[in-house]
Each structure stands twice: as C-alpha cells, then as structure tokens.
Amino acid sequence: QVQLVESGGGLVPAGGSLTLSCTASSRNYGPGAMGWYRQAPGKRRALVGGINSRGGANYVDAVKGRFTISRDNSKDTIYLQMTRLKPEDTAVYYCNAAGTWTETGYSQGDFWGQGTQVTVSS
Q1: pLDDT tens digits, one per residue of 34-45
Q2: Closest C-alpha among 120, 28, 30, 37 to residue 71
Q3: Distance (Å, rounded) from C-alpha 87 to C-alpha 27?
Q4: Strand partners, 38
Q5: Taking a C-beta distance cutoff of 8 angstroms, is the pair 98, 2 a contact?
C-alpha cells in the first residue's frame, strides 16, 4: 500500500507559476516511477507526465516546455513545476504511483493521491 499526499495547489493568474508536491509513504515502495495526472471539469482524468526512478521525465504535448517534473528520492517526493500557466490548465491535479515506465513514458499505477485544485484565472 502506498499513500500519496499532494500539496501546492491554488489560484494563479494566467502566465503565472505554481509548484505541486507529492510525498509517498510506504514501507515497501521504493523510488519507482511516478506520474502526474489532471482532471478538468467535465473531462476524464488524463496524464500530464511521469518520472522514472533515475529522474528521467516525459510530458504530454500540451505541457511540454512549460511543466517540469522532478524528484527528491531522499524525501520520497516528486514535484510538478508549472510555468506560463493557461486557463486551460485549470484542473484537479493527482499524483500517481506504482506505474510502469517504458520507452513511451509512464503508465498508470494503482495508487492515487487525494488531488489538489489548480485554478488559472484569465
């Protein structure tokens, strides 16, 4: 069992920046691949990007060049640094763990955080 706790959401104007954090707590879960997802109102939850155990990351096209995923394995924490935010980035952002990492990137695992709201005003 992996527990994920997210923080850092809020209200930000368009063009602004925000950083989300996700800390994993588990006796048996090491620094494996993890991912960030988001769910906008009326839409399905969708991948934003993921990071492997070595710190390699990839992203969906909509956020490339604006979002950066990083990790601090000593703190069992991953981060989502979001810059040049747009109103269409408004969503509940979720951390996900225990997924798989392939040449195409991160695939969803079984464990989710509670979600944190990000609202970008126009």
Answers
A1: 999 999 999 999
A2: 30
A3: 39
A4: 46, 93
A5: yes
Q: Distance between CA atoms of 47 and 43, rounded to whole angstroms?
A: 12
Q: What number of helices (H) and strands (E) belong to the chain? A: 0, 13
The one-character DSSP state at 98 is S
The full length of the chain comes to: 122
**Strands 111-112 vs 116-121: parallel, antiparallel or unpaired:** unpaired
Is residue 103 within 8 Å of 30, Cβ to Cβ? no
Q: Calculate the alpha carbon distances from 17 to 25, 54, 62, 82 in Å.
A: 27, 25, 16, 5
pLDDT in tens, 56-95: 999 999 999 999 999 998 898 999 999 999 999 999 999 9
